[in-house]
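User: For my dataset I need records formatted as: sequence, then structure tokens, nothing else. Please produce one.
Assistant:
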Amino acid sequence: MYRDPPPGMFQAEARGLYALMQAGARVPEIVWVSEQGLVLEYLPPTEPDWEGLARTIAALHRLRPPIYGWDTPVFLGSFRLPEGTLEDWSLFWAEYRMRPLLEATWEKLGRLGPLLERSLQEALPTEGPALVHGDLWHGNVHFSSGAVLLDPSVWWGERAVDLAMMRLFGGFPAEFWRCYRALYPIPAELEAAIPRYQLYYLLLHVYFFGQGYLPALERTLLELGFR
């Protein structure tokens, strides 16, 4: 529940659910959407289907849109990210995803701010654009006679964005990862870059929940070699 949600947030979520559905993922039916809220169909919970979820996510990640970004505003929670598209992934990531969060949290970051700035100057490995859920932690996955995706922040980006959030707070068991890797192997250079993307989600948590997330942010920067 959001008090005073930013304009367009629920409509953006509805567009994201529709994009996932068009791409073959299962989502709840949208019953009603307005500036005030979003009503979705009720899907009774059942036992987890981790292999089915892995097939769904791998299929999304194998889609190949022509460019990075999204044509309408994107919300991560209630944080508004700019719309727009670019062909250069590292530039898009720095300016359209990291920079807005960095500016919004700068006063809380202390000495970590300049380290994050430095991290944006290094190019990222690329596989090509994919359709990403954008906020894929275990709380945004529901099982109801199969896997259902909820509460997305959908756009076209590198699949490592989703992998980073899935790793950050856990919740996806070995069964999921075995199946996902069999369907779509994760190269070593992509594995090494995943902490770079976790900075994005940690910055979001600093923005919403405060400086208690700074130690995790610092540990991730140290892991990446930024001191």
